[in-house]
Write a structure and sequence with these properties.
The complex is a heterodimer of chains A (about 280) and B (about 290). Chain A is α/β, with parallel strands linked by helices and about 280 residues long. Chain A has a single domain (about 25-285), classed as Rossmann fold, CATH 3.40.50.1820. In chain A, about 35% of the residues lie in helices and about 25% in strands. Chain A contains 7 helices and 14 strands. The longest helix of chain A has 24 residues, at about 1-25. The relative contact order of chain A is 0.12. Chain B is globular, with a radius of gyration of 19 Å. Chain B has a single domain, classed as Rossmann fold (3-Layer(aba) Sandwich). Chain B is built from 7 helices and 14 strands. Chain B has a 10-stranded mixed beta sheet with strand order 1-2-4-3-7-8-9-14-13-12, sandwiched between helices. In chain B, strands 5-6 form a two-stranded antiparallel sheet. The N and C termini of chain B lie far apart (about 40 Å). In chain B, helix 5 links the parallel strand 7 and strand 8. Chain B is of the alpha/beta class. The chains are: A alpha/beta (about 280), B alpha/beta (about 290).
Amino acid sequence: MARLTIASLALGAAFLVALTAPAQACGTPDSICTVASGEYRLAMPENRGGTVPAVVFLHGWGGSARGTMRNRAMMKLLSARGYALIAPEGLPGHGNHGGKQKNWSVRDGATYKRDDIAFLREVLADAATHGVDTDRVLLAGFSRGASMVWDVACHAPDLARAYAPVSGAFWLPLPKGCAGPVDLFHTHGWADRVVPLEGRSVAGGRLTQGDTFASLAILRAALGCRQRMPDRTETLPGTILLRHWESCKSGRIDLMLHPGGHRVPKGWLPRALDWFEARLAEDAT
Amino acid sequence: MKRLTALIATFVLMIGAGFPATAQQDDLCGAPEKPCKIDGGSYNISLPEGWAGGPAVIHLHGYGGSGAKVVGNKAFVARITVRGYALIAPSGLPWKEGKPKQTEWSVRDGYDAYPRDDVAFLRAVLDDAAKRFGIDRSRVLMTGFSRGASMVWDVACIAPDMAAAYAPVAGGFWESLPTDCVGPVKLLHTHGFKDRTVPLEGRRLTWEGLNFVQGDIYQGLQLWRQINGCSNRAGEHVIEEKIWRKVWTDCTQGAALEFALHPGGHGLPKGWSAMVLDWFEAQLASSE
């Protein structure tokens, strides 16, 4: 009897785990969400009624969704402001660079096993079933992830509501043009040596990062900006320099330069969220 | 005794630099009201105290400026002469008859009726100043502001041997941008983040019914990197409170390229003269 009880308890426990596993499988930072062509992680905000806006954050080359979720400060701030954090997983050994580093199918002349624009669409469709409002998505990313953000903004501008790349832009060959207007907030360090503002050749010269200013010029053309120069510039304490193109036919571009290197600068996330919410507020009016 | 010292000094000058010691400086041309005249135009000049020949800064004024106004700016002159440099300030010509105040340089901007070839004129100015004042032609820094800076970019591209180095401020190539230049140069470009007259991205403008386009400075710097054989990535970044600099350190032997960004608008940032003269002297020292 005692043995039977233990056995049934064990069975029952196993059954419970099996029952709860699907609920845990997606929606918490440590669990993995699966879609047809890959994986992602999702952290929902603590207090919510109804659907929530989200920041999709694309990790850099060799990063991971787990790494993104390890940034508890970022998650905490997003949760406090009512946002979900979506961390898509790059594909290892993606592209013809060799190696196992997780990467994105940025248009840089190499061939890739997965179309990451299609993958990100799958991620958003799936996140919608978990309570994310896909009309309120900010697609952000760092370094190689930022280059993917630029590619999405240029070639699939409807994928997210707005774009916030950090320390990465187009690779060569630069696109001749973009599919449509977007709202994009680009951030870059003046002293970045990994992805310099002017770009750099890597992989023995086979792949080349584009010039960020040339990337911005291509985007200005897609937005029909009235003039090349920004409508407004700002210098903020802490030596932050901002350029705002806000009189374009459609969409806008904001550029933030900081004096540092290859990193997400302090204060970037709250500033990006303020900027994103101003865009959402414009939609509401 | 005093006279003897003066005589000896004069003698040294004659040997040392070919300076025309027979003339008193006051008798020479160069002051605002007394420009030095050469074929095709004129220039002004300010010499440091105790001048015995030596290096020079040749500074090209902006649109509507003049050599007289440049040497009349005492604070500007002092920051250069105190370091032992003569300041040569050529005057642009009115771009069109009947517009005497619209002094200009023959920048390559698509307009083909400038009254003078300023590359040739500036060379003539330096030749004349070398003869008259003992300017050391191997130690000339060419600087310029706004349209004057665009002329500096053009000279650096078309006639890189004219000066030892170039330090333009707030101006670059005009469109159509050149696709090639004669050869490597030493160039330090300075620009204001808030410049709306010559914005970093360039600007389209219509002047007396004619269309012009200021080029994108970043695109211009791309060309300089190519000409100078530098990779795109700067080797050094110098962050000071008000000026952020990029230094390309892997350029061809004898070439140099730097970009100094300051948070101000269309003007010379504070500390500019000292920055460019320090840079120039480091360039001269490295090529010795």
